[in-house]
Amino acid sequence: MLLHVAGYFLALAIGFSLGLIGGGGSILTIPVLVFFFSIDPVSATTYSLFIVGITAICGSFHHYKRKEVDFRAVGSFGIPSVIILFIMRKWLLPMIPLSILQIGGWTLTKPLFVMIVFSVVMLLAGFYMIRKKPYSPNGNNENLFRLVLQGGVTGAVTGFIGVGGGFIIVPSLVLFAGLSMKRAIGTSLTIITLNCLVGILGNWNADASLDFIFLATFAFFAIIGIVLGTRAIRYVPDNKLKPVVGWIILIMSLIVFIRIFMQHY
């Protein structure tokens, strides 16, 4: 019971992070679902797409009203991302066998493989986000080829591990589209909404077994968090946002590694 209370508190933090930096919070959803609510890692990817998608819609609407969504970047980055994500969820992910590798008495299962890949991505994302790299917003600096390429990579990652991809989207929009941090956040939330919607459609047959009451409860707390996050963003300097969430992701990735080791050794 205490784990569930802590899990719902973390749902607030997930939404708050999404609202504050347009990503990062979504990458925390799967370990929270797995370790605090005992949901299977493969099922948790689908739960995550629902939760993050619903939450991101609320954040997108807030930024749209403030004219902080770049629809040109949504098209050039979001469309290839959505296409690759759909292919991943609909055809490639189901092709992975339940038992991938067996060495002696140790078996690399599909859920374990998803969690290992997920924790490695978290580790890399955390290191990237704490890097101190200045940028100069310039809306005319869009690199179309790199945006399309990064969109495809983001779609593949999102489809496989069930996260919104904001930890990749925001830096890509800043570096390759020349967007300001707040405009990149609003655009990121819009792309995350599209990614999650297509990810859900690509995995629709598995959704029938979801606990929609739990899903609505978790999403409710995450939505409260994103409302608070989108309000707080007005008072937090851009250069303070990414490092804080980067450290949170790094810590969570270490916790995931420890839990994997404790459960399988």
What does this structure look like?
By secondary structure, the protein is mostly helical. The protein has one domain. Helices cover 75% and strands 3% of the residues. It contains ten helices and two strands. The chain has helices spanning 2-21, 29-37, 41-65, 71-95, 110-130, 144-161, 166-176, 181-202, 212-232, 238-264, and strands at 99-103, 106-109. It has a two-stranded antiparallel ribbon with strand order 1-2. A hairpin with a 2-residue loop joins strand 1 and strand 2. Helix 1 (2-21) packs across helix 8 (181-202), helix 4 (71-95) runs parallel beside helix 6 (144-161) and helix 7 packs across helix 8.
Span between termini: 26 Å
The level of helicity is over 70%
Question: Would you identify the regions where 5 or more consecutive residues have pLDDT less than 50?
Answer: none
Q: Tally of extended strands?
A: 2
Estimate nothing, just give the exact number of structural domains: 1
Order of helices and strands: HHHHEEHHHHHH
What percent of residues are in strands?
under 5%
Strand order of the largest sheet: 1-2
The assigned structural class equals: mainly alpha
- H/I helix tally: 10
Backbone shape = globular
Radius of gyration: 17 Å
Q: What's the mean pLDDT score?
A: 82
Major sheet summary line: 2 strands, antiparallel
